[in-house]
Every structure is written in C-alpha cells, then in structure tokens.
Amino acid sequence: MEGNLQDCEETWGCVWRRAGHRGTPCILHDPNPEKDVPAFHEALGQIKAASNDATLPLYGTIFPARVTQELYASLGGGHFKLKLGAATFLGPVNFDAKWFMKMVDLDGAIFKQAASFQHAVFRNVVRFVGARFERDALFANAIFEDSVDFDHFSCQRADFALAQFKSMVSLRGTPDRQLFNETTEVIFDEARFIEPNRVRLAYVDFKQCSLLKTDLRGIDFSGVRWGETGKWSKRIALFHKQPEEQIRLELENAYRQVRQSYEDRRDYGRAGDFYFGEMEQKWKGSGGFLATLYRFSSSYGHSPGRAFVVLLLLLGLDAAFVTLSGVKPASGAAYNLAAGADGTGPSFLEAWWNALWFYVLKTVAFSQPSVVPSLPIADAFSSLMRIVISVQAALFALAVNRKFKR
Fold it and tell me: What are the distances in angstroms from CA 267 to CA 139, 227, 261, 270?
C-alpha cells in the first residue's frame, strides 16, 4: 500500500498529485478509513473545478467510510464522466435516484458495504466489469438507457427488480469462475429487457435467481446454470421466495418463456426440463388427482420411458386379474388351454401369458379374442382397463412424438 501512496501518480494517473499536491499521504489514495473527510471533499471539489472535459479520472480512489450524501449527489449529478475503475468505497454507497448523463466506469471497483443505485438513471454506457460488492448490490427500479456490463462482478445479493434495460446487457463469467454462485440471490422480478436479443449470458449461475413477472422471450439462456430439485429424479427448478401456491401462474409463465427460448435455439433437451416445470405448475393449479396421474404416467407427456413402463404394467395387471378370475375359450374360437407338466392345467405364469396374448392384447387391438374371462366382474374390469390402457398408449405415443419429432 505504501507504493500506492508514494506512486499513485504513476499507478493511477493521480490528478491530485499532478496538480502539485505532494504531501504524504495522498488524500485520494490514503487507505485510512478515518482520513480527513473535509479534506477529501475539498480535493474532489478542486478536481471537478479543474476538469476541462467534464471527466473525473478517479482511478483507484479510496472513499472514506463516512462520505456525505452531498458528495454522492455531486458525483451522481450527471455532469461528469466518472472514471472510478479500481476505486474502493469503504462505507455504504447511496446513489439512489441519481442521474448519470455520461459514462460511468466502475470496472474493478470494491464496495465494502451495501451499494444502492435504486431508481438511478444511467443515460450512457455503464461498466461494472470485475466489480466486487462485498454486501448487497441494489439496482431496483434503475433505468439503463445504454449498454451495461456486469461481466465477472460479484456480490452477496443483487436486486434488479423492476429495472429497465434498454440496450445491451452483459452478464458473463468464465468456465472456471461462474458469475454468481450457489448462495448468491439474484432478483430480476418484473425487470424489463427492451432488446432481449442483446442480453448476453455466459457461465452464469441462476440457482438462486428469481425471474417472476419478467418477459423472458428472446433471451438466450444457453450459458446459464439452473437449480435442481427432487430426491430421486433431479429436474430443473426456478428459484422463488414466495410460497409456490401463491405464484403458480407467474412460475408457469417463467418456465414457458425459458422453454421457448431453448426451443428457438433447438436445445430440445433443456427445453424439455422446463416443459416439465411448466406443466407442474399448470396441473398443480388445476387438479390434484389428475395432475398426479398425468405426472406419474408419463411425466406430463414428456417421458417415453416412463410411459412405456406404465403401459407394460397396466397390460400385465389386466392379464393377472383375468388369470385369477379364470378364462374360457371364446365362443366359436379354436383354442385349447395348454396343459401343465402334470397334465392338470397350465401354471399361473402360463395362464397369465395366455390371458395377456390371447385376450388382453387382442381386445386392446380391437381383434376377436381367443379366450374370455369366466366371471362377469373380470370382463367389466377388463373393459375399464382397455380404456385406461388406450389412454396410456396415447400418452406413450405423445411422449415419443415430443421426444423425437425434431
């Protein structure tokens, strides 16, 4: 740090040193959190007064812990191009409702306390590349009229609720360092992306990201890592803080729009994950028992494997019930029951196979069966099962079609 104090003109291009202030330490780059605040204010005032091109080159500046609101008001008054790369803010930062008419460069800046830009308006390019928010980063209701770059920035919690992004938005990490992490809560509820095709997402962790009431159509989510739920069978799950039963419609819309985004980019495998979530919210909100059956029988018409297994189980169950009730040759059918090894009749397995092959499958295929149940109740049960099996077969065909039609 001593090097910074002595060489800040060389390291940061310190305008305070260049103006002839050779005292040690430099008031701008002194890391002492209790440094002379009035002197710091005076130095910034002199720099602003001497700025000929409406630019404040404050690279590496260390803002004391107790900066007054008047200072933030002057920085956020919209008159200067702010170059605050690698600056450090030791205390809470409050730029709420401030207007920034010119470019704001906060690349590599460090915010030791909560930083609030709520209701702020950025009329020009904004850069937070590599910025580190050690507490909350609050941008609720902020308006970004030009491009904004949050690549590689980090925080404990980011709130973009109701924010408006009118141009390019970049949220990108790297393969070895995801943007955000599993514990970072990110809120985009009711945010607006005016040009969704210019939202750039790469290596982003959205496991704790809420997207309720946000129009997500057109956004490319290819580089996003999502959260999962389920003990035995993992599936994609969108994050939300409110009780699920209170926001089913909002969740259904969010799942649907993300699914459509993946489908537009022909990523049908990931689209299927969000289709399941969409159907989960839709059917849970419309009917409990039917929703449970639809999910169990075919994962909402999306899992051919599950639908096929359930279809086999239904066929086997029908054949087992018919076998237990007994069968007899159908009228006019040339059929003889296979004799068992001891000549007393078929074994249960043989009888089950006979019932399956010569009765269940033929009736399902609307063909004349070779045997019929001996008891009327078994015939009635089998008639009901034919309807259930036909529905399950249709679900299997639907799931296959959805899986392989493209």
Answer: 32, 18, 9, 6
pLDDT more than 90, % of the chain: 36
| Structural domain ending residue among the three candidates 288, 318, 346 | 288
Q: Say yes or no to pLDDT of 230 above 90.
A: no
Report which of residues 373 and 214 the model is more confident about. 214
Sign of torsion over alpha carbons 304, 307, 311, 313 = positive
pLDDT at 150 over 90: yes
- Residue the block writes with tokens 């002595």: 6
Q: Domain residues for 213?
A: 2-288
Instruction: Provide the domain count of the chain.
Output: 2
The reply to whether 294 falls in a domain is: no
377 and 283 together in one domain:
no
Q: What is the model's pLDDT at position 338?
A: 44
Do residue 230 and residue 376 come from a single domain? no
Residues 276 and 347 in one domain: no
DSSP secondary structure of 120-171: -EE-S-EE-TT-EESSEEE-TT-EE-S-EE-TT-B-SEEE-TT-EE-S-EEE
Residue 195 — very low, low, confident or very high, per pLDDT cuts 50/70/90? very high
